[in-house]
């Protein structure tokens, strides 16, 4: 068996997140509205090998691209763990990274979801969807959503996905500061702070979102993230000043996003936020798929 597939693995954006409890195993129960977004993306190549094409360890993982620096190419990488969970076939996986690590945009999870989808496409794993989402959940809380893509409610520790009709808007400015945040540290801080509920609510930018989130967009992890990383709050305030609108923390951070009413000029604002804060920014919007087969 041999073959090559290239996939686009899209970032996920948590539009709103409430923590509703803590489980006995320490994971947090969530209710989150999550969407795939058009940018940033990683490209993921999955290649099934014939015979002795690779002499070293398999699967072989190669990582390049602007945000590849410092990423492990061993079993700490979710893409490699995803491959091992699904097949014993000889593989080469290549990631071209533009999704930053530690931004709360689910880049590692998106790559793992793309590897799972790529292996199914190549016939290296059976297309048992129920089994696949169980494997995805076992690998990481965000992977079931990345595999499903589009718009969804995410519940439980993340593994319970309720798909929704994808959103037509809004435009989004996504800004990743030059300092990352580690998800476990943010959840730990949330526990240590006594489980705060965020009171900073951002009005829903479109009628579609207002129907799903009548109370507006909010992220309960924001007080914890801003406690873990003191540079985060001034960063958020600078983003809000440039956009003249409230920003919402993306997942466990460190990225913030600003949802914009139509016609606000997301590209210009994204460029201004980058200039004012040193962040990496994108002007983007929700999309229908998390993982896509690419040409
Ligand atoms: O599932 P994943 O490996 O992505 O989670 C990373 C860490 O984030 C977990 O070890 C846990 O500390 C925290 N987490 C949590 N509750 C969730 C998701 C993640 O406490 N629902």
pLDDT < 50 runs, ≥5 residues: none
Proportion in helices: 25-40%
How many DSSP H or I helices? 9
Structure class: alpha+beta
Report mean pLDDT, rounded to a whole number. 94
Written description of the protein model:
It is built from 9 helices and 12 strands. It has helices spanning 78-86, 107-121, 129-139, 143-148, 183-192, 207-212, 222-228, 232-243, 266-277, and strands spanning 3-22, 28-48, 60-64, 91-96, 151-156, 160-164, 171-176, 248-249, 256-260, 280-284, 286-287, 291-294. The strands form 2 sheets. Strands 1, 2, 3, 4, 5, 6, 11 and 12 form an 8-stranded mixed sheet that branches. A 4-stranded antiparallel sheet has the order 8-9-7-10, covered by helices on one side. Helix 1 runs parallel beside helix 2, helix 5 crosses helix 7 and helix 8 runs antiparallel to helix 9 (266-277). Cytidine-5'-monophosphate is lined by residues 27-28, 30, 140-142, 157-158, 183-184, 187. Cytidine-5'-monophosphate binds at residues 27-28, 30, 140-142, 157-158, 183-184, 187.
Please describe the structure with a list of short key phrases separated by commas or semicolons.
single chain, 295 residues, alpha+beta, 8-stranded mixed beta sheet, 30% helix, binds cytidine-5'-monophosphate
Give the structure's gist in a few sentences.
This protein is an alpha+beta fold and 295 residues long. Helix 1 packs parallel to helix 2, helix 1 packs antiparallel against helix 3 and helix 8 packs antiparallel against helix 9. The two termini are 21 Å apart.
């Amino acid at each position: 068996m041999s073959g090559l597939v290239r996939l686009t693995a899209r970032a996920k954006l948590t539009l709103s997140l409430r923590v509703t409890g803590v489980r006995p195993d320490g994971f947090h129960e969530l209710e989150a509205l999550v969407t795939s977004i058009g940018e940033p993306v990683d490209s993921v190549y999955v290649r099934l090998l014939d015979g002795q094409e690779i002499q070293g360890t398999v699967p072989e993982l190669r990582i390049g691209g602007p945000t590849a620096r410092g990423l492990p190419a061993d079993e700490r990488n979710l893409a490699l763990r995803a491959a091992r969970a699904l097949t014993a076939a000889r593989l080469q996986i290549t990631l071209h990274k533009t999704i930053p690590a530690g931004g709360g945009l689910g880049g590692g999870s998106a790559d793992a979801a793309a590897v799972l989808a790529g292996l199914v496409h190549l016939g290296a794993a059976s297309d048992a969807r129920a089994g696949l989402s169980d494997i995805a959940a076992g690998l990481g809380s965000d992977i079931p959503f990345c595999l499903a893509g589009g718009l969804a409610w995410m519940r439980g520790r993340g593994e319970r996905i309720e798909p929704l009709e994808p959103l037509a808007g809004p435009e989004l400015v996504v800004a990743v500061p030059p300092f990352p945040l580690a998800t476990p540290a943010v959840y730990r801080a949330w526990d240590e702070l006594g489980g705060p509920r965020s009171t900073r609510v951002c009005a829903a930018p479109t009628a579609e979102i207002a129907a799903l989130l009548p109370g507006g967009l909010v992220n309960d992890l924001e007080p914890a993230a801003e406690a873990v990383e003191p540079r985060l709050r001034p960063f958020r305030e600078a983003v809000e000043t440039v956009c003249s609108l409230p920003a919402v923390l993306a997942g466990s951070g460190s990225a913030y996003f600003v949802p914009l009413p139509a016609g606000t000029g997301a590209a210009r604002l994204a460029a201004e936020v980058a200039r004012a804060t040193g962040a990496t920014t994108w002007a983007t919007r929700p999309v229908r798929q998390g993982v896509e087969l690419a040409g």
